[in-house]
């Protein structure tokens, strides 16, 4: 795991699009934000926030974003290459993000209500539902929070 640099923006965007296609299909919406984000927007996030990447040789196989606000870190765009899912990369990326932001008392994130795999991962890592937000007829966001050290919650 390491910090992404501006030059990684294009590859991270390609990875993000590959990873979110299944979400777009699940919700019947090809215009979800991760699929319509531009390379300039990704580059801006890398330059102004925390973006970690998992690599296999020269290939980026996973990434996660963190944005600190006060004592809370908002987690976003946790992505793993479709051919590498189920190998623990998502867990490793979340742990690495926690290590990068030791001052965070809590980590917040959200996912769609039909995203069972995501919900299982987050709950296994100590995230608990805080509320739901109905976006439209086909999407309700489930907001989750993990308080306290991640390492204390995961064996």
Walk me through the structure:
The protein is of the alpha+beta class and 155 residues long. The chain has 5 helices and 7 strands; from the N terminus they run βαααβββαβαββ. It has helices at 9-27, 33-36, 39-48, 89-100, 116-124, and strands at 2-3, 50-56, 59-69, 72-80, 106-112, 128-136, 139-147. The protein has a 7-stranded mixed β-sheet, sandwiched between helices. β4, α4 and β5 (106-112) form a beta-alpha-beta unit. The radius of gyration is 15 Å and the shape is globular.
Please summarize what this structure is:
With 155 residues, the protein is α+β, with helices and mostly antiparallel strands. The chain contains five helices and seven strands; from the N terminus they run βαααβββαβαββ. 35% of the residues lie in helices and 35% in strands.
SSE layout and pairing:
Blueprint: E1 2-3, H1 9-27, H2 33-36, H3 39-48, E2 50-56, E3 59-69, E4 72-80, H4 89-100, E5 106-112, H5 116-124, E6 128-136, E7 139-147
Parallel strand pairs: 4-5
Antiparallel strand pairs: 1-2, 2-3, 3-4, 5-7, 6-7
Helix pairs in contact: 1-3
């Amino acid at each position: 795991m390491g910090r992404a640099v501006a030059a990684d923006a294009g590859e991270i965007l390609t990875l993000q699009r590959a990873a979110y296609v299944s979400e777009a299909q699940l919700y019947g919406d090809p215009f979800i934000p991760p699929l319509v984000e531009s390379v300039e927007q990704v580059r801006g996030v890398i330059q102004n926030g925390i973006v970690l990447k998992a690599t296999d040789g020269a290939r980026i196989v996973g990434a996660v974003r963190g944005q600190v606000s006060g004592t809370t870190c908002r987690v976003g765009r946790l992505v793993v290459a479709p051919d590498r899912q189920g190998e623990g990369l998502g867990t490793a990326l979340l742990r690495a993000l926690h290590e990068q932001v030791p001052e965070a008392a809590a980590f917040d994130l959200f996912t769609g209500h039909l995203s069972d795999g995501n919900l299982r991962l987050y709950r296994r890592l100590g995230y608990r539902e805080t509320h739901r937000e109905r976006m439209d007829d086909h999407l309700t966001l489930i907001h989750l929070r993990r308080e306290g050290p991640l390492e204390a919650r995961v064996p």
